[in-house]
Amino acid sequence: MSFVLKATSSLKPRASSLCYPALMTDADPIFDDDPIVERPIPQRQEAEQFAIAAAKLLDDYDCADIRVLDVRGVSPLTYYLVIASGTSDRQLRSLTKQVAGLGEQQGFDRFGDDKDEAATWMVADFVEVMVHLFEPNTRGHYDLEMLWGDAPEIEWKRKG
To answer: Rounded to two decimals, what is the model's pTM?
Structure first.
C-alpha cells in the first residue's frame, strides 16, 4: 500500500483551520490558489536501499568508516542514519551534492541540509534518511555512533 504526501507551496495560516482541522473545507482559502505537490512516501525498504546506495557512493569517493544505522523505533526523526568521515571540506561539500543527486534519482527529495561554519560536519536530510559527513576530529567529538548506540547497524559493504 502506498500513501501520497500532499504539500502546498505556501501556507496561509487561519486560526480556525490550524486549530480545528475539522472546520477545513474545499472552499477554505488555504486550498484555493495553492498548487498541490504530490510525492509518494517512500516505503521502509526503499529508504533502506537509498541509505545503502548512499553509503556505497561515499565509499566510491574515498570516505572512511562509513556506517548505516537503523534508527527506527529509536529516533522519531528519521529511519536511517548514514555516517561517514571525509578528508577535506571540499570533499564534504562535493559529496553532499553527489548524495543529493543520488536521492533525486531514487525519489528522495532533500528536505534540507546544514553545515557548521568550517564545513567539518555536513548533513543532508532526506526525511527518511539523514546523511552525516564529518571531518574525522569533529566526528570523534560528536560521536553519533555512541549517541545512537541502541540502533542496529545495517550491513552494506560490497562483497569481494
So the answer is: 0.71
